[in-house]
Amino acid sequence: MKPLQGKRVVVTRSRAQASELCRRIEDLGGSTYEFPVIRIEWPEDLRPLDAAIHSVETYDWVAFTSPNGVEMFFERLQSSGRTTQAMQSVKIAAVGPKTAALVEQQGLTVHALAGEFVGEGLANTLTTHTQAGQKILLPRANLARKQLPQALRNLGLHVTEVEAYRTLPVTEDASDLVKRLESKEIQAVTFTSSSTVTNFLNALKDYPIHDLLAGVTLAAIGPITADTVEKNGLTVDVMPADYTILGLVEALVRHLRRD
């Protein structure tokens, strides 16, 4: 029998991002219930991103902190008429293997990969790769945390932050999900960012959330997401040591097997 046989797992990622997580769960015999609570959109004002792309070769570093940041940045670069040739002299840093792989698919080299897959981990990695006075570009989400740019400035770097995309809440009717939680059809809920936690709880704000989630495994992809869960008075049951989709699924399997 496959390890997730008979287990139904809620996936809260955007529909565009959910496929990898759903596929891994289903390959292991589980079933998924998609309840996307975020969507990815372009910034309202594209001029800062376009300006950064137009002058990208003037930066010493470009640092990508998410797959979304890579995809939106290079899509805009291509539509602006520029090519990755403009970035051949620029060093690239990335948070996490998925982000790095997407950069490399563009034919570019990742010069620094964060050992810990959060923003602060990237700052620690760049300590030994950068020199004070260098210029670094951060294409990020509208809701990105401020710890990373501050940590980079503490290294003496000149940091330019640009909004490459927006993470917006999706409001879906939660009544069907609530029925499934009430009837104990759901064994786990996965969270892949703080935004998914916040928006999921907002979607269920009119329901007795603690009662609904009693006995349901809550899985968070990393410490920042886990912290958001716990700040809302809930308990994280699963958090992988490796803050990736693969790590999340493997940790979920181990936990559910024990149960």
TrEMBL record:
<comment type="function">
    <text>Catalyzes cyclization of the linear tetrapyrrole, hydroxymethylbilane, to the macrocyclic uroporphyrinogen III.</text>
</comment>
<feature type="domain" description="Tetrapyrrole biosynthesis uroporphyrinogen III synthase">
    <location>
        <begin position="20"/>
        <end position="250"/>
    </location>
</feature>
<keyword id="KW-0456">Lyase</keyword>
<dbReference type="InterPro" id="IPR003754">
    <property type="entry name" value="4pyrrol_synth_uPrphyn_synth"/>
</dbReference>
<keyword id="KW-0627">Porphyrin biosynthesis</keyword>
<dbReference type="InterPro" id="IPR039793">
    <property type="entry name" value="UROS/Hem4"/>
</dbReference>
<comment type="similarity">
    <text>Belongs to the uroporphyrinogen-III synthase family.</text>
</comment>
<protein>
    <recommendedName>
        <fullName>Uroporphyrinogen-III synthase</fullName>
        <ecNumber>4.2.1.75</ecNumber>
    </recommendedName>
</protein>
<comment type="pathway">
    <text>Porphyrin-containing compound metabolism; protoporphyrin-IX biosynthesis; coproporphyrinogen-III from 5-aminolevulinate: step 3/4.</text>
</comment>
<dbReference type="Pfam" id="PF02602">
    <property type="entry name" value="HEM4"/>
</dbReference>
<dbReference type="InterPro" id="IPR036108">
    <property type="entry name" value="4pyrrol_syn_uPrphyn_synt_sf"/>
</dbReference>
